[in-house]
Amino acid sequence: MTSCIGLNWSWIPLRRNVTLRSYLKSLAKEAWDYVSWLTHEKNAIRSDGDLAVEMTAHSLSLFEQVIERREFGVPDRCPTCGSYRLGVDWRIDEEDAQIVQAQVCEVCAWFQEMKPEPLRRPDDDERDAAQIEGECLPSSDL
Q1: 125, 128, 85, 121: which is closest to 103 by C-alpha?
Q2: Where are the strands (E) in 40-139, listed by range?
Q3: DSSP 8-state assignment for residue 121
């Protein structure tokens, strides 16, 4: 079966970790292929559908973690003490009376409010350079 998935949302920038990027792309492709198979399988049973939901949820969860980490600029280590023991905390901003999400070091109590920075989407040239494998058919021809 030839896949006709563009995975246009899998351009998530992972400069340092080629292995993670490859894993995320292949995970999404395999989940897509399974769901596509299931969509047209006449003898599918409920557990096939349950697996498809779990595969999709797992793929989206991992992408969400990578995107959130990138958007919020989460450091790998504490900039003060160098610890890897960073966590997320929610605090109330007294001035604005809003809940604020923040990075906190569990070792030295370093604290930084997390403000999202929008991801850079690929420009037109980069998108045009991405090739879709296999023959794609309009959905009306399926």
Answers
A1: 85
A2: 86-93, 98-105, 111-113
A3: P
Say how many CA atoms lie within 13 Å of 130 toward its Cβ: 14
Domains in the chain: boundaries? 1-71, 76-117
CA distance 125 to 118: 20
Residue 132 CB partners (closer than 8 Å, separation 6+): 4, 5, 6
pLDDT tens digit string along 66-117?
877 777 777 778 999 999 998 888 877 778 777 878 889 999 989 888 776 5
Q: What angle do CA 116, 121, 122 make, to 5 degrees?
A: 155
* Fold that domain 76-117 belongs to in CATH: N-terminal domain of TfIIb (2.20.25)
Residue appearing with tokens 């280590």? 77
Nearest to 93 by CA among 85, 82, 84, 101: 101
Supply the pTM of this predicted model: 0.56
